[in-house]
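We emphasize that the prediction below concerns an isolated chain of 135 residues; any contacts that depend on oligomerization or on bound cofactors are therefore not represented. The input was used exactly as deposited, without trimming of termini.
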Amino acid sequence: MKGNFEGVAVTVPTSADSTVVTGRVIDKSTNEGLPGIGVVLKGTIRGTATDPDGYFSLRVSQEERKLPLLFQTIGYVSQELPQPTKVKAQGLLVALDVDVKGGLVWYAPIYTPQGVWQRVSSIPRRILYAVRRDY
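Result of the prediction step, given as a C-alpha cell string:
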C-alpha cells in the first residue's frame, strides 16, 4: 500500500460485489500521518483503523458503497466524507483538525508525534504551576 501511493485514495475493483477503498489520514497542521484513526462506514460497525503512517484499506460491498465514511478519534474533529464514486478515481486524503473546545486544546493521542510533543512541552508549565500554588 505504501509504494508509489503518494497519499491519494484509490478504489480498486476486487470482485463484482465489492471494492477496496484506501487512503491516508493526516494531521491538518503538521501533514503527518495519524495512526489509530477509526475509519467506519456510517450507521454500521464495519470499519478499520489507520496504520502507524496513517494509511487505511477497507473492503466495502456494493450495498455499502452509498454509505459515507466517518473518520474519528479522541483529540481531533471527526469528519464524514462520501466514498469515491468512480472506480480508480482519485479519492480520499483526509486532513483532521485538532479538536478545540472552550478555548482548550485537547491532547492528541500519546502515540502520535504531536501527542508526545504536547505532553513533553507542557512539563515546565506544570512544574511552574505546582511551585506557585498557594496552600
